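Sorry to interrupt, but I need a hand with the structure work. It will help me judge whether the discrete encoding reads sensibly. Write everything out right here, beneath this request:
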Amino acid sequence: MRRSKAFTLIELLVVIAIIALLMSILMPALARVREQARTVSCRANLRQWNLFFSMYTEAHDGKFQAGVGSGHTYHWMNTLRPYYQNDHKIRCCPTALKPIVDEHGNTAPVWNVFSAWGRFWGEGYAPEGDWGSYGINGWVENPPADYATVYENFDTRNNWRTPGVRGAAYVPLFMDALRFNIFPLPTDNPPEVPDMAWQGTQHMRRICIDRHNGGSNMAFLDWSVRKVDLKELWTLKWHKTYDTAGPWTMAGGVSPSDWPDWMSRYRDF
């Protein structure tokens, strides 16, 4: 009689165990590759935004958008719309594509740093609403004279109104954010937990978010793009008189124990 050839149960279990072992080894590596791809794509988006801002300033006597007045007509989402052709995807980091508010106005039950802000409707917004996961440094705008002293409790006389300023490589322009604009101050406290929503005038909390392995991606006024470590945020030149040696910097005397526990593993600056 001819014997049939087939796998025994033990042989099948061994094969399954080997496959499971290989998957356990490969899955973390694949996850890292996917995250790296999203990070690269995010920086590509920001380079595109550098181009949009550059084109806008060249067409407007070297000045940035006003950022104020007539609803949100002069904010970057609407002012630069002719350049990015209302592409909602390019307003979003690839790690944060889904807005916290859906097309029906319902807010998502779960919010975190991988959510996009919005959706917003009204004057200066697209008919389908605007959303995104990037924000502009609010100190890089050119408000008109009647806003030239104070806007939302921030002294706009400190604004960078044109690109190419001295030290432009350390002046943030556009970045990963939980809100479409940010007015950081050197005294802003870090968020107590990773997914803490920003509140009040603590605007540094809008951008102190770990979207890219310990940091966030950022475009600068010299049209460069790079990853910024979270504790490094307090050392950048956000506005003309910003103290880069403030209380949350090593130069200002901060110690590792002063930071929230979730930030203890990040590099000090």
